[in-house]
Known about the structure:
The structure holds two protein chains of two kinds. By secondary structure, chain A is mainly β. Chain A is 0% helix and 52% strand. The relative contact order of chain A is 0.34. Chain B is an all-beta fold. In chain B, strands 2, 4, 5, 6, 9, 10 and 11 form a seven-stranded mixed beta sheet that branches. In chain B, strands 1-3-8-7 form a four-stranded antiparallel beta sheet, with no helix packed on it.
Amino acid sequence: AQTVTQSQPEMSVQEAETVTLSCTYDTSESDYYLFWYKQPPSRQMILVIRQEAYKQQNATENRFSVNFQKAAKSFSLKISDSQLGDAAMYFCAYRSADQAGTALIFGKGTTLSVSS
Amino acid sequence: EAQVTQNPRYLITVTGKKLTVTCSQNMNHEYMSWYRQDPGLGLRQIYYSMNVEVTDKGDVPEGYKVSRKEKRNFPLILESPSPNQTSLYFCASSFDSNSPLHFGNGTRLTVT
């Protein structure tokens, strides 16, 4: 079974600085998707970024980028120029592309605090 | 506006009293699912549906039922709620099983 591990329960960063959130996963599949979701205090789940395993190029969305290392099964999220609004819990998630209907498998989350 | 709508947002009930949490999406998505979120455990899938009249168990289906009579609606039913079902519940949908999930705003359920 696939697993997703986020080893940092909490992280903190100062405004305008850069922070990297770690995520590793375990799978025997070759085709899959990886996601980062943000959950602010409003508890809404917001998709931050998506990576397709067969694409070697790292995904980027404005200030958010990933470092996808397929061989190492690592998928870290870098937030540049951090803003107060980035404070939230961040979840890394995996979804198989091989098996229809499979769940999005989540890590346990990293709480990010941003200070001014 | 494209969205997934869950109701209610908050619900307090007593053990054994049947309840339904509704979920509706207006994006014509085929795939819908329910998750529960518990501290330290992340989100875990309860049930999912790949199309009308097609539902399957997720990782933690015990104590829950679902139905998918129409494409847009996917209610979660707790026939006899128990305190261990106190949790934050999310409904989600996607165009298909390989597309990103769109989440509802969550339902905070407390069973006393």
